[in-house]
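Teaching assistant here, posting this on the class forum so everyone can see the example we discussed in section. The complex has three components, and the goal was to see what a joint structure prediction looks like when all of them are supplied at once.
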Amino acid sequence: MKNNNQKNIILPRSFYARDTIEVARDLIGKIIIRDIDGIILAARIVETEAYPGKIDPASHAYRGKTERNSALFGPVGHAYVYFTYGIHYCLNFVSRVPESPAGGVLIRAVEPLLGIDHMYKNRKVQNLHLLTNGPGKLTQALEIGPDFNHIDITKKGPLYVLDAPEVSHEIVAVVTRIGISQAKEHLWRFYEKGNKFISKK
DNA sequence: CACCCGATTATCT
DNA sequence: GATAATCGGGTGT
């Protein structure tokens, strides 16, 4: 009997050292763990978008490395957290093949699993389905801010990601990205069909 | 449900 | 000075 039980296995760095688009699709169903000094929050990834830096005008990395986007050019399996619209933080996982200089996967929505009461305290909403159904909402619910930029998500720590059974490709929708003004045509957004925690549209 | 807009600031032109 | 990988509240159909 071996490893049928994938519970509590942290996704290895090799998972993120693949094509950014494949990583985005395969992250659907994986589990984000946020450890706040022993308080464990857990959430299942249900929506992502791929931003393959070199070939993607919508990627923050497209026009080269700057201080803000430097994490996207760093080691895979690290977090890229950026501040946007003067208010929100968004979470990405650095993912790319070794030959590519930059790339990341935006986590757009998650399904709360553990620590839901704590997530409510971090948010000013009363409906469960509004708790984590957007990139700026989930960072607020999980208390993810600028300090999380560059951190390694392949080791136990304040933020890491667990493996989980693969979600059938029949259940993963492949559609265009949202919230961008360039390169809108690519089918680089993925979500679990029927899940009520996906972001609007 | 479909737009419209204000909030609020780092980054780039 | 404009833009931005957003959100939540508002108004109108």
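For the discussion questions: Chain A is about 10% helix and 25% strand. The first strand of chain A starts at residue 31 and ends at 36. Think about how each of these relates to the inputs above.
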